[in-house]
Amino acid sequence: MANGTVVTFYSYKGGVGRTLALANVAAALAGWGYRVLCIDWDLEAPGLSHYFAGWIEDPSFGLVDLIEEVAAGKEPDVRRATTIVALPGLEDRLRLVPAGRQDRTYMDRVQRMDWSLLYEDRDLGAKLEQVRSDWLRRFDLVLVDSRTGITDIGGTCTVQLPDILVVMFTANHQSLDGAVEVAHRAIKARNGLPYDRARLLVLPVPSRFDAREEYDRAVDWQRTFAERLPQFYADWAVKETTAEQLIERTTIPYFAHWSFGEELPIVTETARGPDFISYHLETLAAVVAHRLARSDLLVESRDSYVDAARRAGLRGGRFEYDLFVSDSGGSRGPARELVDRLRSSGVSVFFQQDDVASGEDLAAASDRSLAQSQHLIVVVGEEMSRGQRREVERFIKQTVDEGSERTVFPVLAGGASARTLPSLLQRSQHFDTRKQSVGSIATEIASAVHSGASSGDPGR
């Protein structure tokens, strides 16, 4: 993937579910294939480690230790402070920098830290830039849990570190006003940084919002949010979307069950839907994964938006296959020859006959591989099969949802006519084995793939 992105989760007041949201967003993103680092920067009230209890070793070294190394004039040992979160199925994609060992000396160590002195005499700002650069090389997304209020630590988390600032608040004026004020301060302070950094983007997230019990009051508060927050959306949302629409999509409702303890519903909830908190946390994870892009798709189809983010994570920044070759029952001979010639040209190809393991679910394997293939070849015999039509529809929908450059190459074999193709493919370039040899078709498609496949894409 491209260089990583730092996302700070901030709330002016406690009790908004900030750490719960960050931990679950991190687990969702890692489950989708992204390399994720979580950092517990809420040093005076650290809690992120509790959400990963049972999947991490007891932290003996963390952020406090890194800061103390800087204070002592040493190079901070970032790798030592980073621990694997061994959630099932994630391999080593999720990691954590904890606050530090929670022993009797911890709070004294935190309170002794002089942040002004660290910046002025120990060059903490430059050290953090080095550490930040290392994180961005190693991870796709770095999620920072910032402490509440207006503090020196909070300034580091909201100004210097992030590319995106997620400000969370509940439906009360103190929480909302404080979040808006800090966001404005962060944007202004960002312009004065001595480091090269793009404009700070702000994502407002209303949380623990109960629209069921007090519907009329909820409507009033939604109106208040829409009046106070549009300036933040203007920096990243497309003009076709409104603040009201985006607030509705990104609000995390109140679920009493998850007000107790530190848990990961993104892992434990098996059902998905608006009546489950995991549904809303997945939406937030997708917004983070998209780096706030494609707000039009979020408004149009939340499920398509989440699926696009999941596919991007699955690919890890690159397609596993250049081509997915789909064949109908009457086209297996030409399809087999085409696959062999493409592979001999250095093109990576998924072909169901070769690449589905014995006993594996064919539909699931095809769906997974279709998402991981940059382009699609449809080899049609006398007519397209139902499965091929489904593959074409899914591929084109994915392409449109992602705004990506992916191409469908129809290949007519066995007497098939272009009229048997879906109307969208009839208008695109297609190949006919009655007019060209399979070898020349393979050469032309391989050349298009190597040069970027700039023609024949119905989804563009």
SSE order and pairing:
Blueprint: E1 5-11, H1 18-31, E2 36-41, H2 48-51, H3 63-71, H4 78-81, E3 83-84, E4 94-97, H5 106-112, H6 115-121, H7 124-138, E5 141-146, H8 152-160, E6 164-169, H9 173-190, E7 201-209, H10 215-228, H11 230-233, H12 243-250, E8 252-253, H13 265-268, H14 277-289, H15 295-300, H16 302-315, E9 321-327, H17 332-344, E10 349-351, H18 352-355, H19 362-371, E11 373-380, H20 386-402, E12 408-412, H21 423-426, E13 431-432, H22 438-451
Parallel strand pairs: 1-5, 1-6, 2-4, 2-5, 6-7, 7-8, 9-10, 9-11, 11-12, 12-13
Antiparallel strand pairs: 3-4
Helix pairs in contact: 1-14, 8-9, 10-12, 14-16, 17-22, 19-20
> Helix count, per DSSP?
22
Please give the number of β-strands: 13
Count of distinct structural domains: 2
CATH class of the largest domain: Alpha Beta
